[in-house]
Amino acid sequence: MSIFIERLLERLQAHETAWSEEDRAVAAEAEAILHPAATAAAPSEWMETVILSRAGDAPLKFRGELLTYNEDRYPGGEQNRWWRLAVYRTEGKRLVVAVGYRTCWAAEADSDFAAPATDPSCVATLFREALETLIPNAIGYPPGEAYANRQIAMLQSLRCNFEQQMSEIFKELPECAEQIE
Questions:
Q1: Distance between CA atoms of 156 and 67, rounded to whole angstroms?
Q2: d(CA 23, CA 37)
Q3: Going by C-beta distance under 8 Å and a sequence separation of 6 or more, which residues neighbour residue 170?
Q4: Model's pTM, two decimal places?
Q5: Which range is least confidently modeled, 9-13, 37-41, 172-176?
Q6: Is residue 72 helix, strand or coil?
C-alpha cells in the first residue's frame, strides 16, 4: 500500500502547480502517513512568515498562507474610505482574521485589526469585533447638527460595505459555514 501511495504522490507532485487547497491537504496527509517524522518537522513549502499590524497592540506574527482577500476600493472613484478584509491559515491550521480600515482624509488615520480564531465558527464574530473596534476611527464630518445626517450616512455606508465584503470572504471559506441538522 505504501508503494502505491508513494507512486501516486510522485505523479501528483509532477503537476503541483495546478493543485487546489484540497489536493494539498490530501498530499500532506499522504506524506504524513509515509514519512511521519519528516513531515512533522518540515514547514509547509507554500507557507510564509506573515506579520499583521494591529492598532494599539503588538503585531501578530505567524507562518501561514492567505486564504482569501477582499478590498472594496474601486480604482478611479471618489472613494475616500474603504476596508481590506483577509483570512489566513497558520501552519498549525488555525484561521486568522485581518481587517484594515483605510482613509485618504488628513484628519483620519488608517487602522488595523488582526486576531486568531479559536475555531472556524469564530471567524464571523472576529469580523464583527473588528468592525466595532475600527469604525470609531472613521471620524468623518465635524460634530454638530449641520453634519449629523452626513455622518450617519457615512457610517452606514462603511458598515454596509463591510458586511458585503464579509459575504464575499465567506464564499471562499466553506469551513466557516454555519452547520445545522
A1: 28
A2: 21
A3: 123, 124, 176, 177
A4: 0.71
A5: 37-41
A6: coil
